[in-house]
Specification:
mainly alpha; Fumarase C, Chain B, domain 1; Fumarase C, Chain A, domain 2; three-stranded antiparallel beta sheet; two-stranded parallel sheet; about 55% helix; elongated
Length: about 525
């Protein structure tokens, strides 16, 4: 699966990200996950680690059984483990829980997962030693990425199998991809980087694997991508409204204010800005224009795009709370260690599913706008399928098929994963979130949305060219020029269309389409 790229890649080596006792920012996660930023632990984080470790050491030396320190795990928590076997207990935990299957997940997912686990360690509520946390940070800084199979997390008791694969690499076991992307045994990559495998002490194995970090990392990146893609959706909609000779009067601020959803207001403001000073729109605006009842896919774009924006805003709020959380079990609180249920992934799983619904619907309305270009009865005198010689040429007929196929898949992916639960661990873990599964399917949804929007942009640009000699608006015209400069030709006889679609997809994913618009009319909301 190809995933959406960040809007703008840094031109220089990224600055180190400091992991402190407080929450990470979205941009910190993206910098480490996607741009390979190195990681350092703050002095405050190191002090918090030392304080929590002192509590664990005291507990380990005592006679009272403590979950994760001197007992087994899950349904085996009633087994008391003698002191001589506790290092083996932690090794065995990691080895047995690194039980994933399937293809490896993407490098950026693993790096995000590791950074967020490190962030929880740095809060001083997990009880790991400072050296263990520093060794974990060193993996990120040296670009050593554990191989994490896609399947294995139920999203409760954390993303156990994915996080265990990372902890295994810290121990010098399993496979990793080094900074050059070469797959090799973990102990070899560690040695090449001058790092020493970690011998886990009491509680550390559990602390390294008991978090919702994988699903949260994917949520943070999805929110980042969708913020860019929803502004791009406004660009695509404006190009379609313009090229289909639709009215812009329905986007007026006073009309939108009658239904005061903030996302809707932002989307409508973007459409007004994009369509301002458009000779195409001006050509049919005036007292003789009766275009006040355009199709829903044109007229209701702010309502749909706005609802998606508000959904993303809610998801970002949840993600922000999670970034400020310490997810582990048990946790160190002051001078005691307590069991809890904060590892349950429901808060994250719900919004991951919610975002998949929003992505599917924005893609659906985009496909409907595209389809109107291709039907002469609805396109206002554009040639059928925008073909040069309809009948001999098919134009963009099959590009819409591609859109339709993707949208159909996105509708299937919008079925929530978080409503499912399969009991595990001999019924000790009898209700799980499936948040990891929700995150994995959301990544496919975000990718599909980018592809659907790219085909709309490609088709609308062709239609705008066909409206010549009328010129498009400054912002939409910049997108047409961007495509032409990238090698996508204008209207003409049929040619191999897949490479042109791929180019358009790349321009949408990279944020180039949005950047081209904003260079002309300023930032969109």
């Amino acid at each position: 699966m190809v995933t959406v790229s960040p809007p703008i890649a840094p031109s220089t080596a990224p600055a180190p990200v400091t992991v402190d006792v407080g929450p990470l920012r979205f941009e910190d996660v993206v910098a480490v996950a996607r741009h390979g930023a190195p990681v350092v632990l703050s002095d405050a984080a190191l002090a918090a680690l030392d304080r929590a470790r002192a509590v664990i050491d005291a507990l380990a030396a005592g006679e009272t059984p403590a979950y994760g320190v001197s007992t087994g795990f899950g349904a085996l928590a009633t087994r008391h483990i003698p002191a001589a076997m506790r290092a083996q207990l932690q090794r065995s935990l990691v080895r047995s829980h690194a039980a994933g299957s399937g293809p490896p997940v993407e490098r950026e997912v693993v790096r995000a997962l590791m950074l967020l686990r490190l962030s929880t360690l740095a809060t001083g509520h997990t009880g790991v030693r400072r050296g263990t946390a520093e060794a974990y940070a060193a993996l990120l800084t040296h670009g050593i990425t554990p191989v994490v199979p896609e399947h294995g997390s139920l999203g409760c008791s954390g993303d156990l199998a994915p996080l265990s694969a990372c902890a295994l690499a810290l121990m010098g076991e399993g496979e990793v991809d080094d900074a050059d992307g070469v797959r090799r045994p973990a102990h070899e990559a560690l040695a090449a980087a001058g790092l020493t495998p970690v011998e886990l002490a009491a509680k550390e194995g559990l602390a390294l694997i008991n978090g919702t970090d994988g699903m949260l990392g994917m949520l943070v990146m999805a929110v980042t991508d969708l913020r860019m893609l929803l502004r791009t959706a406004d660009v695509a909609a404006a190009m379609s409204v313009e090229a289909q000779l639709a009215t812009d009067r329905v986007f007026a601020a006073d009309l939108q204010a009658l239904r005061p959803h903030p996302g809707q207001a932002d989307a409508a403001a973007n459409l007004r800005a994009l369509l301002a000073d458009s000779p195409v729109v001006a050509s049919h605006r005036g007292p003789d224009c009766n275009r006040v009842q355009d199709a829903y896919s044109l007229r209701c774009s702010p309502q749909v795009h706005g609802a998606a924006r508000d959904t993303v805003a809610h998801a970002a709020t949840v993600a922000g709370r999670e970034l400020a959380s310490a997810v582990d079990n048990p946790v160190v609180v002051d001078d005691r260690v307590e069991s809890n249920g904060n590892f349950h992934g429901a808060p994250v799983g719900y919004v991951l599913d919610f975002l998949a619904i929003a992505a599917a619907d924005v893609a659906s309305i985009s496909e409907r706008r595209t389809d109107r270009f291709l039907d002469r009865a609805r396109s206002h005198d554009l040639p059928p399928f925008l073909a040069a010689d309809p009948g001999v040429d098919s134009g963009h007929m099959i590009a819409q098929y591609t859109q339709a196929g993707i949208v159909s898949e996105l509708k299937r992916l919008a079925v929530p994963a978080s409503v499912d639960s399969i009991p595990s661990s001999a019924m000790q873990e009898d209700h799980v979130s499936m948040g990891w599964a929700a995150a994995r399917k959301l990544r496919r949804s975000v990718d599909g949305l980018a592809q659907v929007l790219a085909i709309e942009v490609l088709t609308a640009a062709r239609a705008l060219d066909l409206r010549a000699p009328l010129e498009p608006a400054p912002g939409t015209g910049a997108v047409v020029r961007l495509l032409r400069d990238a090698g996508v030709e204008g209207p003409g006889p049929d040619r191999h269309l897949a490479p042109e679609i791929a180019t358009a997809v790349g321009l949408v994913r990279s944020g180039a389409v949005l950047a081209a618009v904003q260079s002309q009319i300023g930032d969109l909301a």
